[in-house]
Amino acid sequence: MTYFSFTKGELLTLLRRKQDTMNALIFFLMVVILFPLGVSPSPEFLSVAAGGIIWCAASLAILMSVEGMFKEDFNDGCLEQWLVSGLSLPVLILLKVSIHWLIVIVPLLIMAPILAQMLFLPMDIFYVLLQTLILGTPALFLIGTIGSALTVSLRHGAVLMLLIIIPFYLPVIIFSTGAIRAAQSGMLYDGQIAILAAISLASLVVSPIMSAISIKASVS
Amino acid sequence: MSWTWFHKLGSPKWFFQFASRWSLGVFLSGVVLLLIGLVWGLAFAPEDYQQGNSFRIIYIHVPAAILAQSCYLGLGVAGFVFLVWQMKMAPIFIKSVAPLGALVALIALVSGAIWGKPTWGTWWVWDARLTSVLVLFLLYMGVIAIQNSLEDKILADKAVAVIGVVGLINLPIIKYSVEWWNTLHQPATFKLTEKPAMPMEMWLPLLISSLGLYLFIAGLAMLRMQTEVLNRERRSSWVKEEVLKNGI
Which residue spans traverse the membrane (chain B) (predicted)? Predict the structure, then answer.
């Protein structure tokens, strides 16, 4: 196994099992639909709340898609192979998360303009939303990976993982919706965007190492 | 500087003997200090000119809030120690302290809500500090949940250490993010670098009750850790000797 063959294998698995990705995206759509139905369908409310709604839905969808990330590999013994392959485990994990991010975020970004229209989000605010999604979601994926690696040996680990991981998502959600709110009231939002990027970069450093520790503990 | 104390901490046997000498004393002195601080604060300290008597809940609220943060700090540091040096005592510490931390965080939340009613007019506001203590409480619950759910004890120890370290990195981010997000709460009561804004008769009992709660929690944590050490080392010969000689 080399890094290249690993990447190719992961990419192929994800592309051939489109249903998993589809499920996460449908889930995203459904959570978004809950808000107009459950709170209020009026354009005044929705145009203000759209950024927050899309972000909450995206976080939940990402949690769902990240949760089972290592499950298959754990069950069929791939994780052991990673450990004995002589390749660096954090790098392998980073590759895997990056592929997952790419596969989920691209359709999510394609869906975003449609949802923004449905939620009456003005076009100029929509560009801010796009920036926050591109810069903030890597952090969500990376932090989620730690939880997924921790609970990989559990049969019903999903709820436990949500319980552990959601508190760590709060800063990302606060800063991204903060940027959107600042843009809505006509203020500068560069600060929030920069902090989002900083959180993503920090998770890039911490998450592969922590996930590798957890996977090693889970396998042996 | 000698590092022997640090290496000694890695030995459950040494810790057990150390704790059996100190835990009860620490716990009882904590109880005494806490009582002195609370009685002084609740009955004898002067009234606040603005909030009247309702401010007195500060003598419960502030120590609990400080402890909630300190416990998590300790938990995160212990997690780091465990991940780096694989010290046996670190996960025992985490396991014993997490429920205590959750408890003080809950006390801080509840007393804060009770204090908020007369001063702000509501039980709860979505204010930075309240929210960050709530998040802290949730973090503790996560640590407890994962400790209890993982059957494999070695994995459980690793898992709580990982969560502790990630939480330690994340805690300042969470704290500042909610602080920028929304603030209604008054600024921190104790700052190490500044002279307190309260008069001496008001902050001295606060200091005493904070110290008392520290000792109280430390004593409780040591007692809990002793139990945990006995449980984990139950197959070793020194535990057998200890139990046969001194009973449980």
Answer: 21-45, 57-85, 97-116, 128-147, 159-178, 202-223
Whether B1 maps to a domain, the answer reads: no
Any domain includes B163: yes
Determine, for residues A174 and B166 on separate chains, whether the beta-carbon distance falls below 8 Å: no
**Looking at residue B248, what is its pLDDT?**
62
pLDDT mean over A153-178: 88
Rounded to 5 degrees, φ, ψ at B84 are -85, -50
Q: Does A168 touch chain B (CB under 8 A)?
A: yes
Q: How many domains does chain B have?
A: 1
For residue A18, give how far its alpha carbon lies from the nearest alpha carbon of chain B (Å).
Answer: 31
Q: Could you tell me if A188 lies within 8 Å of chain B, comparing CB atoms? A: no
- The CA distance from B10 to the nearest CA of chain A, in Å, is 20
The pTM of the full predicted model, rounded to 2 decimals, is 0.87
Question: What is the ipTM metric for this complex?
Answer: 0.85
- How high is the pLDDT of residue B200? 73
Q: What is the pLDDT of residues B122-157, one digit of tens each?
A: 888 777 777 888 889 999 999 999 988 888 888 899
Chain B positions touching chain A (beta carbons under 8 Å): 83, 135, 138-139, 141-142, 145-146, 149-150, 152, 154-155, 158-159, 162-163, 165-167, 169-170, 173-174, 177-178, 180-181
Domain around B65: 18-186+197-246
CB-CB under 8 Å, A174 with B162: no
Residue to test with chain A: of B148, B165, B168, B177, most A Cβ within 10 A: B177
Q: How confident is the model over A116-127, as pLDDT tens digits?
A: 999 999 989 999
* Domain presence at residue B136: yes
